[in-house]
Amino acid sequence: MASYAIGDIKRLLRIETHVVRYWEKEVPLIQPQKDKRGRKRYSNQDLQILLRLKYLLYERHFTIEGARDQIFCELAGDYQNLHAQVAALRSELLDLYFFVHKA
């Protein structure tokens, strides 16, 4: 799994490191892990959230609070969709199970 140092994030997003740190405090979904040397490493998911946050702030002119709420809503929708997909798969598996055991 890829991970990125804050300098990598700075170069990819073209924003200053203090901005990344501020966003990290304002949006708790951004959760970099510390490596063995104590340096923060950002995951692919962190990078995707940061990219979306930058878009909402700089292109759509959201406030930081509005952008944070928008990201929460988007991710909540993804989780609800995932839950529905898992429920549908469970139902299908049960149908297959009973079909196989009837034969």
Can you tell me about this structure?
Strands 1-3-2 form a 3-stranded antiparallel sheet. It has one domain: Multidrug-efflux Transporter Regulator, Chain: A, Domain 2 (Orthogonal Bundle), CATH 1.10.1660. The chain contains 4 helices and 3 strands; from the N terminus they run βααββαα. Helix 3 crosses helix 4 (64-102). A hairpin with a 5-residue loop joins strand 2 (33-34) and strand 3 (40-43). 71% of the residues lie in helices and 8% in strands. The chain is elongated and about 65 Å long. The chain is mainly alpha-helical.
- Pairing-aware structural class of the strands and helices? mainly alpha
What's the CATH architecture name? Orthogonal Bundle
Low-confidence stretches: none
SSE string, helix = H, strand = E?
A: EHHEEHH
Let me know the number of strands: 3
Span between termini: 44 Å
Query: What share of the residues does DSSP label as strand, in percent?
Result: 5-15%
Mean pLDDT: 88
Question: Which CATH class is shown?
Answer: Mainly Alpha
The description of the largest β-sheet is: 3 strands, antiparallel
Radius of gyration: 19 Å
**Share of residues in helices:** over 70%
- For this structure, the CATH topology is Multidrug-efflux Transporter Regulator, Chain: A, Domain 2
Overall structural domain count: 1
Gross morphology is: elongated
Task: Determine the number of helices (DSSP H or I, runs of at least 4 residues).
Answer: 4
For the largest sheet, list the strands in their spatial order.
1-3-2
